[in-house]
Amino acid sequence: MLDLENLPALAKKNEKNVKAAFDRIRRKKPKDLDDLVFSLHEEAFGQIDCLECANCCRSLGPRLTDKDIERLAKRERLKPSDWVLRYARVDEDGDYVFREMPCPFLAADNYCVVYEDRPKACREYPHTDRRKFVQLLNLTLANRATCPAVLQIADKLSEKF
Question: Taking the model in full, what pTM does it have?
């Protein structure tokens, strides 16, 4: 069972080493970084089941694009403006996010009831399988406290650098 309650403390524990390693990565920009991170991503998600965790769906409010809202509104058979009134709010950055967390589309069994139409931010999370990973180091550092797979990936990456 995942220890999600202690995840922020675990992330804080090694944060200094990870930050230092990420600074070295920024300076060196290793050519094989994307391949290495993708390999660590595959390893981590081979061990960690998102359906057991769903911590991102419980605690992170994804930014909702206009296309996300249109797609989700269509799924719910609502006008986009009505969908926004029901499910969204504007955050401090002026972006639409879910009105409440956990995500209103997270089922009791941790399945996403709108999985095929989920927001772009949800599709891409936790970003550890994307190219140009060097551009995502700050985001990865922050995501260590939410996603146990990101914690594992970042900590292993810091051991290598």
Answer: 0.91
Instruction: Give the relative orientation of helices 66-76 and 80-87 as an angle to the nearest 10 degrees.
Output: 90
Its sign, for the CA torsion 101, 106, 107, 108, is negative
CA distance 50 to 111: 9
Mean pLDDT for each 10-residue chunk of the chain (161 residues)?
A: 85 96 96 97 96 95 97 98 98 96 97 97 96 96 97 96 95
Residue 89 has φ and ψ, to the nearest 5°, of -145, 165
Of the candidates 148, 155, 153, 152, the one whose C-alpha atom is nearest the C-alpha of residue 53 is 148
List the structure tokens of 64. 């909702």
Q: Which helix (H) or strand (E) holds 96?
A: strand 96-98
The answer to whether the bond into 102 is cis (omega within 30° of 0) is: yes
The whole-angstrom separation of Cα 104 and Cα 113 is 9
